[in-house]
Design brief:
- The model is unreliable at 1-36 and 42-161 (pLDDT under 50).
- The protein has 19 helices and 16 strands.
- The protein is of the alpha/beta class.
- It has helices spanning 4-13, 36-46, 48-54, 60-63, 75-83, 85-91, 101-104, 145-160, 175-178, 192-201, 214-230, 247-252, 258-273, 296-314, 328-335, 353-363, 377-385, 439-450, 454-468, and strands at residues 21-26, 96-99, 112-119, 124-131, 165-170, 181-182, 185-186, 204-209, 235-240, 278-287, 318-323, 344-347, 366-369, 391-393, 418-419, 429-430.
- The strands form four sheets. Strands 5-8-9-10-11-12-13-14 form an eight-stranded parallel sheet.
- The chain is 41% helix and 17% strand.
- The protein has two domains: 4-158, no CATH class; 163-468, TIM Barrel.
- It binds zinc ion.
- Zinc ion (ZN) is lined by residues 283, 321, 347-348.
């Protein structure tokens, strides 16, 4: 940790003006703050001003995760802070005050300075936006746990107003979303309207419903159309196709012939394309983790058939599932390159960087990331290296939670109060039932491990999605 002493020395060398007006107090205390690095990350991602200052050329070093230099701009400011409540409570606890020395120098008078205090003895931090004017009458008040919540909400809602997300993979047809039924047991009243509200509040403006069987494909088209009428804030589209683990159930064990079923899928897709409801062929692919549901040879056979019949005829992008299959999916897609020409996304990616780069470089595919892509240090290392312009965001809800035990959890800034399904409370999320609103957490983890702003990640992924789904317009 950079000490105050060192920066006091720097200040002595810095003859810049000694008057600072505290114009605005922006507490960013959050229960999740544990250290300076995370505080800095939070600020970088949530306070545009801090970002704009940090990314000015002279502060590039700081923007690259260098710790803020701990300094106070002048003695008067330092004394005022020391005298204030915050100063007392935090300094007495061994708080270090961080005022970025770099940010306090060479700035035009219109630029604001950022002053941060962090306490390492308890999880408190405070950001003050100050302006380079005469030190005024501004007072500072200590933040406490009671107003933490409020500030977090403010910060969250003002931020989400700027962010836009497309959840490219949501299993919203599941009973737990539409009926409050979990594994066959009714647990609570339906809260789909609130799920949509929460998603909207986080900036989700499009959701692609994932279908994995023939019946689901049909239902997804119907539900997307229905929900588009009912919830105009979000544009719903869907996939049509059979999931690799369900190929035996759908194509082999069925009373209908595989050809008839493929034709039925094609009919559903063709119908759904008339009004843009069907966005992709999927989810199709390979999954060797769950061979008990469907052997690999059947998976491969019907992957190829869906490429040949569905993808080739419709010209839709692919929504691909790739789980523990080595390079098999890559090879089948390469061998059938003539069947698909609208690109695609390998969703829920959790494999090696090498494989990801082969999908990207050889097949021009995008990589879809959700909580399942962020479970280990190894996966975070992959995400860190993935080119930002090839990443799409998804939740794969209700699955793929970013859990407290996951290494990426440390980067999450947006938390949703949750109750167990049995103790459901209307208006709160349900424990371990991920929803489209949680997409912001996926973006936060990606931003955290890449050292980028949340907005940079959200915007880039948003644009990437529209590059893949070219027929979409951004209004919706
Ligand atoms: Zn999948």
């Amino acid at each position: 940790m950079v000490g105050v002493e060192k920066d006091t020395r720097q200040m002595a060398e810095d003859p810049s003006e000694d008057t600072v007006n505290i114009m605005d107090l922006v507490p960013v205390t959050g229960t999740g703050f544990g250290g300076r690095r995370r505080t800095i990350e939070f600020m970088r991602r949530n306070i545009p001003l801090a970002h704009s200052l940090m990314t000015s050329s002279r502060n590039q070093q700081m923007a690259r995760n260098e710790p803020f230099s701990a300094s106070l701009h002048n003695k008067q400011t330092r004394n005022e802070i020391a005298k204030s409540q915050v100063g007392k409570s935090t300094l007495d606890n061994g708080t270090h005050l961080f005022l970025s020395n770099a940010m306090s120098r060479g700035l035009s008078s219109s630029l604001k300075l950022l002053l941060v205090t962090t306490a390492f003895s308890r999880t408190t931090c405070l950001a003050l936006v100050v302006q380079r004017k005469r030190f005024g009458t501004a007072t500072m008040s200590a933040t406490n746990d009671a107003d933490t919540e409020q500030h977090d909400n403010t910060s969250s809602s003002s931020r989400s107003a700027r962010l836009r997300f497309v959840d490219i993979g949501a299993n919203l047809l599941e009973d737990r979303f539409t009926a409050g039924i979990y594994r066959g047991t009714p647990r609570h009243e339906p809260d789909f309207d609130l799920i949509i509200d929460r998603a909207t509040q986080q900036g989700v403006c499009r959701i692609v419903l994932t279908a994995g069987t023939v019946a689901e494909s049909r239902e997804a088209v119907a539900k997307a159309r229905e929900w588009n009428q009912q919830y105009p804030a979000i544009k719903f589209t869907c996939t049509v196709g059979v999931h690799p683990t369900r190929c035996r159930q759908e194509f082999v064990d069925s009373e209908h012939s595989a050809d008839d079923l493929l034709q039925e899928l094609l009919d559903i897709a063709t119908d759904g394309m008339t009004d843009g409801t069907v966005a992709a062929v999927g989810e199709i692919g390979l999954d060797y983790d769950r061979l008990e549901f469907c052997p690999a040879d059947i998976q491969k056979e019907y992957l190829v058939k869906q490429l040949q019949v569905l993808a080739k005829t419709t010209g839709l992008p692919l929504f691909l599932h790739n789980r523990s299959v080595g390079t098999d999916l890559l090879e089948i897609l390469s061998a059938n390159r003539d069947c698909w020409n609208a690109g695609g996304v390998v969703h829920s990616f959790d494999d090696t960087l090498e494989l990801a780069m082969q999908f990207i470089d050889d097949l021009y595919l995008y990589i879809g990331l959700n909580g399942c892509s962020l479970r280990t240090d190894e996966s975070l290392a992959v995400v860190k290296e993935l080119p930002l312009d090839k990443i799409l965001l998804e939740t794969d809800c209700p699955y793929c939670e970013v859990r407290k035990t996951h290494p990426g959890y440390q980067y999450i800034q947006t938390h949703f109060e949750a109750k167990a399904e049995k103790k459901f409370e209307r208006g709160l999320t349900v424990k371990s039932r991920i929803e489209p609103c949680h997409i912001v957490q996926v973006a936060e983890v990606i931003a955290g491990c890449k050292g980028l702003l949340l907005k940079e990640v959200a915007d880039a992924c948003f644009d990437n999605t529209f590059r893949l789904y070219q027929s979409w317009t951004k209004e919706k």
